[in-house]
Specification:
Length: 462
């Protein structure tokens, strides 16, 4: 099982761009590349999925058990598996580093490629790399890629320094090039479902990586990883199996909404859902469906177009009022509110949630959360533990909410809708700021499909 973990000395080192280039370059060589992303993230995985032409799956210590991480990593056959880390190699939510990229490298016995931004540095790079190399003897830093190299003379000096002081292979020197950059906004990179000429950008990045990285040596390192034994399934919660009649669930897939975990979509399909995409920006009516799933995204960046599509807004409002089962997360919650207000601009949305979304300059809810289901949660088959982890990342809040709302979740830790609750329950709708993930501790997908099946409500064009 050839595999690599691409990490960095610190955040904003260019790790994501380099990982994208590696995935695209290896795919262009004819290899089947399976990407993974550490931690809770949608945007980088969307780009990685496009670069590798395969869905990128997340590996997350906080929401998954170690055996589940192993199982996810083993589940998808490929010629090479590439994990993009988050933050720096040893950064973690705890002081012991138990949830760090380094811990993931140890768990999966995976060689690390360290990306170091050398802007303004030559010899000073030595103590940085030596410090990372010797900090934890269990980590195998098998190669280094230097980023933001100023030019040919800078590269020559860096190679001289490497040859004299460092015994780790220098796999490449990526020269500074503004064309390698991907536009960013408040949550990070502009998602690939919104970016213009995505494939052309990825081709450009891949070509730059092919020119400046020793791809043969990189693959030799990937193939040097030791055999990774499959984890025993003993004692693990079984993955839900499908059953019952197939239901059609409409899923918003467009430039405004694209934050979905591939594993969750797999679980919805395994539970008996046919996922029917619709476009909130251009479709004037709903397709014929038995339920709705509107995930996260950036509705605020498209709110004028969303407002202008009155036909679909009214159709969704009428369908939910008529009892169509629906689930919405973060951006989906925003779209279902009365309006979105961002600075001086205010745009009408679906209006099924009795509150107005207000955008702020700083995050209003960010990071891992801990939830507890209330007795008002409508989905059948509750078998979750008393508390479970999820995550949130939003720059908005729901304001001027009508009193007396019913909630599906109590916030044990985190912000949610009001710091105490999340998951507004209205008719057959559950809408929350928090992003759920279908994992062993909380199999939400099967329960939602069963709920859609139980409701037996249909909506949309025939």
């Amino acid at each position: 099982m050839a595999r690599l973990l691409i990490s960095a000395a610190h955040k904003s080192s260019g790790k994501t761009t380099i990982t994208l280039g590696l995935c695209a370059a290896l795919r262009r060589c004819g290899l089947a590349v399976q990407p993974f992303k550490k931690g809770p993230d949608y945007i980088d995985p969307m780009w990685l999925s496009r670069a590798a032409a395969r869905p990128c799956h997340n590996l997350d210590f906080q929401t998954q058990h170690e055996a589940e991480i192993h199982a996810t990593f083993n589940r998808y056959p490929a010629d090479v598996r590439i994990i993009e880390g988050n933050m720096g190699l040893f950064d973690s939510i705890d002081v012991e580093g138990e949830h760090s990229n380094a811990a993931l490298a140890v768990l999966l016995q995976t060689p690390v490629i360290l990306v170091v931004n050398v802007l303004g540095m030559t010899r000073s790079v030595v103590p940085i790399i030596l410090g990372y190399q010797h900090f934890d003897p269990d980590i195998r830093i098998a190669g280094v890629i230097l980023n933001s190299v100023a030019g040919k003379r800078h590269e020559e000096r860096l190679r001289e320094v490497f040859a004299r002081y460092i015994d780790i292979p220098l796999l490449g020197c990526i020269h500074r090039d503004p064309e390698l950059a991907i536009s960013e906004r408040h949550l990070g990179l502009v998602p690939s479902n919104e970016a213009v000429e995505v494939d052309a950008k990825l081709d450009y990045i891949a070509a730059a990586i092919e020119r400046q990285v020793d791809m043969a040596q990189l693959m030799d390192i990937a193939r040097s990883a030791p055999p990774l034994a499959a984890e025993s399934s003993e004692g693990k919660a079984p993955r839900p199996e499908g059953g019952g009649m197939t239901v059609r669930i409409g899923i918003a897939r467009d430039a405004a909404f694209g934050f979905y975990y591939p594993g969750d979509l797999e679980q919805l399909q395994q539970a008996g859902a046919e996922l029917v995409p619709f476009d909130t920006l251009h479709d004037r009516q709903l397709p014929a469906v038995d339920g709705l799933f509107i995930g996260g995204g950036f509705p605020e960046a498209h709110m004028a177009t969303l407002e202008a599509n009155t036909g679909l807004r009214h159709a969704i409002h009428a369908a939910i009022e008529a009892g169509l089962p629906a689930y919405a997360e973060c951006g989906g919650l925003m779209y279902l509110a009365r309006a979105i207000r961002w600075g001086e601009q205010r745009c009408e949305m679906v209006g099924i949630i009795p509150g107005e979304v207000v955008m702020y300059e700083k995050p209003q809810g960010r990071g891992y959360v801990r939830l507890r289901e209330t007795s008002h949660h409508p989905w059948p088959g509750a078998s979750a533990p008393a508390e479970f982890y999820a995550h949130e990342f939003h720059y908005s809040m729901l304001e001027n909410l009508a009193p007396g709302l019913t909630y599906a979740y109590d916030m044990v830790r985190g912000t949610g809708i009001d710091g105490r609750h999340d998951g507004i329950v209205y008719r057959n709708l559950v809408a929350n700021y928090v992003h759920l993930r279908d994992v062993e501790d909380y199999h939400w997908a099967r329960r939602f499909v069963d709920f859609v099946r139980q409701c037996g409500v249909h909506s949309g064009a025939a």
